[in-house]
């Protein structure tokens, strides 16, 4: 089945006869629209910038040209961190980015991007689709004239690149680290100085000594940026972003102007790319990690138990305080944490024992 046919079929599967009839209208009778999508990523950036481009292509194909989206990389139309204001104010129609970048607008946006010690990629969509998350997201983003949809996820991330080893909590004191969202506040309370920078600015900041460390995403994207050339210590034991959810944020008037069939199509494409992005990141990260270790001599390190406990304790304080910001934040916090409790209970019974036991057979899976 061709990609275009698949996407159209997936979009229409649950939409009923009204949506089917709408998309069956001859193309010449439909209105054609050109929309602008701004992103927080450098142009053609692997996995994030490239997926924004593919989402635009798929929406155009599935709507048979009714919705034609031009994608602008960070800095082409607006700066990376100006994407939210551009869409909220009508300068652009859609943004593609992670919502914790907007926590300066409202602290609760962080829950829809990444929460330290929070939900994994699979659990995040569980919350949004089956735990009441989407309705709360609509309420929050709607205050800024935006309608948001999940459209991607980086899956499990890494702890970051450091110019010096992190052996104790003392090593965080005075450290200038690029780390956004709640993770930045956690390190601030441990004595570090968090810095927010767009992805395309990190390498220069590291090379010029403006920052001492940076988290970004994972081996695939980190290899592309060449962080190993400047900061030789690569840490796992991620705490700040067990996953980072990528959003399509539509100007609310633009979203409201779509037909029922168009909305159904866009939702289906966003959900499709959410799953595809997880698969792509997992596959590419595994390959890139081998390259970092075998070709560039990178040695992956782990934060100590003492450090992880301090990070966890501080994270609990920070996340709770965000949840206490106002009534909406409280409701978002309680809803998110209910899904976290449920997911942890089930994964503790199912996933965690299996993942531990999968390592038991010594010769299982050898190449033949």
Describe the protein in words:
- The chain is an alpha/beta fold.
- The protein folds into two domains: 31-153 and 244-283, Bacterial extracellular solute-binding protein, family 7 (D-Maltodextrin-Binding Protein, domain 2, 3-Layer(aba) Sandwich); 160-241 and 297-357, 3-Layer(aba) Sandwich (D-Maltodextrin-Binding Protein, domain 2), CATH 3.40.190.10.
- It has 14 helices and eleven strands.
- The chain has helices spanning 3-12, 16-23, 49-62, 83-88, 121-130, 133-142, 181-189, 202-207, 219-225, 252-257, 260-294, 305-323, 327-349, 351-357, and strands at 33-39, 67-72, 94-98, 146-153, 160-162, 176-178, 193-195, 213-214, 233-235, 245-251, 299-301.
- The strands form two sheets. A six-stranded mixed sheet has the order 7-6-8-5-9-11, covered by helices on one side. Strands 2-1-3-10-4 form a five-stranded mixed sheet, sandwiched between helices.
- Helix 2 (16-23) packs across helix 11.
- The protein is globular and about 60 Å long.
- The relative contact order is 0.16.
- Residues 12-29 have low confidence and may be disordered.
Overall tally of domains: 2
List SSEs in N-to-C order: HHEHEHEHHEEEHEHEHEEHHEHHH
**What's the total count of β strands?**
11
CATH architecture of the largest domain: 3-Layer(aba) Sandwich
The end-to-end span amounts to 32 Å
CATH topology grouping of the largest domain: D-Maltodextrin-Binding Protein, domain 2
- Quote the beta fraction: 5-15%
Shape estimate? globular
The largest beta-sheet arranges its strands as 7-6-8-5-9-11
């Amino acid at each position: 089945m061709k990609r275009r046919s698949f996407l159209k079929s997936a979009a229409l599967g649950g939409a009923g006869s009204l949506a089917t009839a709408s998309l069956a209208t001859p193309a010449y009778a439909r209105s054609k629209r050109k929309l602008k999508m701004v992103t927080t990523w450098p142009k053609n950036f692997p996995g994030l910038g490239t997926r924004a481009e593919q989402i635009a292509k798929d929406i155009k194909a599935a709507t048979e040209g009714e919705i034609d989206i031009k994608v602008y990389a960070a800095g082409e139309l607006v700066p990376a961190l100006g994407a939210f204001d551009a869409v909220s104010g009508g300068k652009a129609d859609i943004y593609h980015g992670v919502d914790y970048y907007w926590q300066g607008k409202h602290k609760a946006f962080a829950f829809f991007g990444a929460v330290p010690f929070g939900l994994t990629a699979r659990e995040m969509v569980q919350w949004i689709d089956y735990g009441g998350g989407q309705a709360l997201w609509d309420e929050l983003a709607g205050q800024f004239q935006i309608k948001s949809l999940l459209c991607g996820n980086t899956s499990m991330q890494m702890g970051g690149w450091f110019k010096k080893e992190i052996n104790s909590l003392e090593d965080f004191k005075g450290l200038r680290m690029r780390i956004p969202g709640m993770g930045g506040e956690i390190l601030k309370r441990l004595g570090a100085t968090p810095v927010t920078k767009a992805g395309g600015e990190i390498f220069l900041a590291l090379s010029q000594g403006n920052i001492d460390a940076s988290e970004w995403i994972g081996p695939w994207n980190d290899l592309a940026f060449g962080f190993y050339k400047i900061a030789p210590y690569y840490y796992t034991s991620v705490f700040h972003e067990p996953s980072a959810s990528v959003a399509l944020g539509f100007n609310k008037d633009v979203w409201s102007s779509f037909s029922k069939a168009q909305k159904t199509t866009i939702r289906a494409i966003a959900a499709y790319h959410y799953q595809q992005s997880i698969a792509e990141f997992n596959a590419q990260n595994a390959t890139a990690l081998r390259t970092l270790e075998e070709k560039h001599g990178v040695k992956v390190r782990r934060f100590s138990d003492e450090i992880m406990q301090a990070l966890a304790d501080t994270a609990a304080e920070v996340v709770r305080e965000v949840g206490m910001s106002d009534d909406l934040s409280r409701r978002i916090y309680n809803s998110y944490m209910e899904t976290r409790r449920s997911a942890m209970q089930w994964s503790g019974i199912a996933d965690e024992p299996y993942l531990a036991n999968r390592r038991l057979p010594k010769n299982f899976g050898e190449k033949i």
